[in-house]
Amino acid sequence: MLKKIRVIASVLIFSLLTFYFLDFAGILPMELHVLGHIQFIPAWLSHNIAIMAALIICALLFGRIYCSVICPLGIFQDIASRCSKKKFAYRKNNLALRWIILAVFFILFNLGFAIIAGVLDPYSMYGRIAVHVFKPVYMFANNILAAIFNNFGNYAFYKTEIGILSVFSFIIALLSFAIVGALAWKNGRLYCNAICPVGTVFGFLNKFSLFKIRINNAQCVSCGICSAKCKASCIDAKSKAIDYSRCVNCFNCISSCNKKGISFAMKNKDNQPAVDKSKRRFMLMGLAAAAAPAVLASTQRSLSETKTTNAPQRGTAISPPGSVSAEHLKKRCTSCHLCVSKCPSKVLKPAFMEYGIGGVMMPMMHFEKGFCNYDCVACSGVCPNHALLPLTKEQKHRLQVGKVIFIPEICVVHTNGTSCGACSEHCPTQAVKMVPYKNGLTIPVIDVDICVGCGGCEFICPVRPHRAIYVEGNKIHQQAKAFAVEEIEEKEITDFGF
Q: What's the predicted TM-score (pTM) here?
């Protein structure tokens, strides 16, 4: 019964979360972004005390239920290991490696290397797999159905453009899919119990949980069936012991034991407790984590000074609405790419080196295929980390993520003597206006004070390879003239309790 409940709950959460990442047509309600908010790393980064407390209390009561029910990457591994139909065997634990990876994760993330969190956080890793690997396949299947149905006069499906948002992010997602999938196929939950920092945290908490998988020494005959079914390879049938730091409470062992020698219960006299040798290692790694930032700070400063841009025109990358600044984004973003997936205008894409080495794969705005809708607040509304702070439409209308820059020397009005004005027509705030030029033509003039940086002008400009008008990103987002730049960042963070 316990296994059935776990499977039903995990399949429901996994299916909804996966389809939410894939859903380009907006079939699912936007409120389902709450499935991202209940993930451990996003809850920690957004300072969501209620969810953090609930997850920790749940772990102290029932063990690693999070890993077997809520974490999408964990459920993905379960699917892969189930498809392989492989029998498992007890494997010794490598606690030192797990604590070292956890320490490095927190140290480098606190130093501004958000890419570390992006690569190792299980929720963000699965998000990238869904966006860059699963979603193109889903869209391709949609286009096939659209072609079939449209031939019969049914337009329930419509064709959509398929493309790679970022070569680097696609490669990382594909490698993550291949590596984690292969590890799960051969070794079950090896990634969770050897690399994943969240798995290490919950593994530590699992040792103190009230309810655990327990072996009844009197009824156990050491047949090894439970060990063969344990995808965490944490049951030593010969010594009748369980390594609780690796047990993910999948309940496969309980359903497979025909002697009723294993159960999910509180401690009793017949149960053999697991040996805990990790506490001293935990303290040592904690001390290392506290001391290392001072040693590595100079390295981070030197690396952060190295900047590149994706075009000679733009000197500062445009961070999405609600991000406050690239620096704020680096402190919170784990590159799950949910905002990239849910952007209806497709103006968000993963960065490469535009934010520097510490911001690889974080979302940035680009206007090659569209511009930011004046009334759209989708990206800031779905972010589970509060790397993008929630915005109302009124706040979005007053928010300046960048400023328009016009280069008259390459404008078609000047170079070709032809009428244009497309940039002015697409400006929602009239920051770009047309004024008399010569020979009856008009040419753009700009008012940077009322520009919101939506990119409408840049997107529509016909000049190539570099536009005659483009948006230069603001290092710190600005708003109305009445607000000072420094006050904007402080006000935004204070409003949302940070």
A: 0.82
